[in-house]
Give the backbone structure.
Amino acid sequence: MGAVIDAIMVIIGTGIGLLFRQGIPDRVADTVQSGLGLVAIILGIHGALASSNPIILVVSIALGAVVGESLGIDQSINRAAVSLQTRFSKPGKTNLAEGFIAGTSLFCVGSLVIVGSLENGLLGDPTTLLTKSVLDAISAIFLTASFGVGVGLAAISVLVIEGGIIIFSRLLAPILSEAVITEIVAVGSLLLLALGLNLSGATKFRVMNYTPAIIFPVILLPLLHAFFA
């Protein structure tokens, strides 16, 4: 559900962008983005407070940051996105491929994709993806002004990537305990909080470098229970 709505919102945003090309001031986009950042902050706080094991949150975030920084996940993704856009861009004009790559880089790369899809798959809760869909629609409006109709094709990427994560997480859900799922979502919510702070302009977290933290509750919670059993 969440992935389908997100893809539809990208298409709607592209359509609006084609109708009002160059007609919406950047300051309006910045203000709306900051407002959505505040929403992400609230959702992140709400989700993180669901944790019943704060130590899992602390250790997962710390270990995730170490792994993410060591691998340079954020930097690698940014370089790949820039490389793809440069490869397909043509001086003086835009094409479908350029718009598709630009849209895919924006809509399908980031912690919001992972966190929202995991919540949708593990808990059946599409709230984060629905919030992302609004942000993507607004972004598509302004991106279309620069790259044209090709941005709308990125809806395919959204559907495939988010849908794939949702399906995979649903397959995992039966073998994960409710406690582990709760902690995974709580860690993901902390990443959502960090993203919200970035969107509001308050911070510049390299959020993708924290994404390995989502894996650690699967390892740490059983160890914690075994140690204190």
User: Anything to note?
Assistant: The CA atoms of residues 7 and 155 lie 4 Å apart. The chain has one domain: 2-228. The chain is about 75% helix and 0% strand.
